[in-house]
Amino acid sequence: MKCIEFVEHYLTCFNASESARRMGYKGASAASQGWEFLHDDFTQAELDKRYKQHAHENHHARNEIIAMLYREANYFGEGSSHAARVRAQTQLSKIFGMETLKIEAETKQTGGVMIVPMCQSVDEWEKIVAPQQMKLMDDTVNYG
């Protein structure tokens, strides 16, 4: 029964420690008990069941949100802004799983360390690193 009580509190605040505090646990005990409750198999099963139920019940609301984002992403009338269109498009890309393109681009990068050659002058250094800088700019344009 305590797991069900924890789930009820957790679904209102999504914080395990706070949920345990609401159940009467105090101090460090609230944090450890919250963690225990959250990682309990029964609690996880109950949360999964509740999340699925919520998703099923709110399918219509999700579609309304998507429709509103489409309207905002394509609205150019009075009071519109470029920033609002971009933000709406960003949210739509997240909903439809398109943000993985950025993750793929980030994983294609290699290294992360710039090697600075020992040179006699700034002009000599610029001559040596110019091809690396061009590659970096090209990679940024192609992956960004």
List the helices and strands and how they pair.
Layout: H1 2-13, H2 16-22, H3 27-38, H4 41-57, H5 59-73, H6 82-95, H7 100-108, H8 122-143
Quick structural summary:
The protein is an all-alpha fold and 144 residues long.
Report on this structure.
The chain has 144 residues and is mainly alpha-helical. It folds into three domains: 2-57, Arc Repressor Mutant, subunit A (Orthogonal Bundle), CATH 1.10.10.1400; 59-98, no CATH class; 108-143. It has eight helices and no strands. The chain has helices at 2-13, 16-22, 27-38, 41-57, 59-73, 82-95, 100-108, 122-143. Helix 1 (2-13) packs across helix 2 (16-22), helix 1 crosses helix 4 (41-57) and helix 5 (59-73) packs antiparallel against helix 6. It is flat and about 75 Å long.
